[in-house]
Amino acid sequence: MTDNSALDPEDRKIVTLARSARARNGVPEGAAVRDETGRTYVAGTVALDSLKLSALQTAVAMAVASGARSLEAAAVVTEAAEASPQDRAAVRDLGGPGTPVLVAGPDGAVRTTVTAG
After folding, report:
1. Is residue 66 helix, strand or coil?
2. Buried b (16+ CB within 10 A) or exposed e, 7-43
3. Using an 8 Å Cβ cutoff, are 45 and 18 in contact?
4. In sequence order, which ranges of 1-117 are alpha helices (DSSP H)?
């Protein structure tokens, strides 16, 4: 488990935003990504009959739809122990293989940081 106080303030911000999205929307996951200009995109899990996206996939899609060309970092708040391969692939597609993905528990404490690669 990572001490969140040791995180870069911008990384702490996206973890907080992801946690807020999860709680506010009552969804299994919340996520946030930061693009190359510092803009953030926040999303929750999408679970419709015709469309299912994880929170991180939705946040990446929002960044792309808004014109982002790259990602600096991503965060997901989840019960899962790690980011899924599909989530990491979505981050990698936009941010590249070295993009950090912070994985936090529902309490907001970062459990691990992996790269999208």
Report:
1. coil
2. beeebbbbbbbbbbbbeeeebbbbbbbbbeeeebbbb
3. no
4. 9-25, 55-65, 85-95
pLDDT tens by residue, 17-26 = 999 999 999 9
Residue 105 to residues 35, 64, 77, 115, Cα–Cα distance (Å) = 23, 26, 5, 18
How many CB atoms neighbour CB 73 within 10 A?
A: 23
- Per residue in 80-100, pLDDT (tens digit) is 999 999 999 999 999 999 999
Q: How far is residue 92 CA from its own chain's centroid?
A: 12
Cβ pair 117, 93 in contact under 8 A:
no
3-state secondary structure of 91: helix
